[in-house]
């Protein structure tokens, strides 16, 4: 499968009315520690908004709700995999992305025949505490060689300025979170990312 070169993660569906009209094509809804009723409402809202704008929505972690609400793509971290029914996800025809940080996790992820694999953190990140050291751009090249046709998503400390080197290293898609959400003007920063993605698509 082909992934859009730019992949945004948002922590609330409230961002989507601001970002989707700008041309965003791939977004993950990553919400932690909310009541199930709120999670259900957020996922439903995000699904409807993304469908309207032709944006691919990926649901982080909450695979049961994703299936129940008719979403077609989920992302699981290594801890999420411990409790997930991957067979049920596949039976539902839902695509799957998996987070990886080291060789053991990569082996585990590849055994699931994922639709993409995320590698991180490429650079230091402020998003969450990480037990893994920054992987570096060279790791991107090495992992892409192992993945072959499986898309590789680079994540962690990525910015518009760092992105070209990471694309050149082999990343099929680059994921940003704080570089957009914490920007002084998130819409302007997202527009920069989308311009970069357009250049990558044009090739």
Description of the structure:
This protein has a single domain, classed as Alpha-Beta Barrel (TIM Barrel), CATH 3.20.20.70. It is 43% helix and 18% strand. It has ten helices and eight strands. Strand 5, helix 6 and strand 6 form a beta-alpha-beta unit. It is globular and about 40 Å long. The mean pLDDT is 94.
Strand order of the largest sheet: 1-2-3-4-5-6-7-8
Q: What would CATH call the homologous superfamily? A: Aldolase class I
Count of alpha and pi helical runs: 10
* CATH class annotation: Alpha Beta
In short:
With 203 residues, the protein is α/β, with parallel strands linked by helices. It has helices spanning 16-19, 36-53, 63-68, 78-83, 86-91, 103-110, 137-147, 163-169, 178-181, 186-202; strands at 6-10, 26-29, 56-60, 73-76, 95-100, 116-119, 152-155, 173-176.
Keywords:
single chain, about 200 residues, alpha/beta, TIM Barrel, 10 helices, about 45% helix
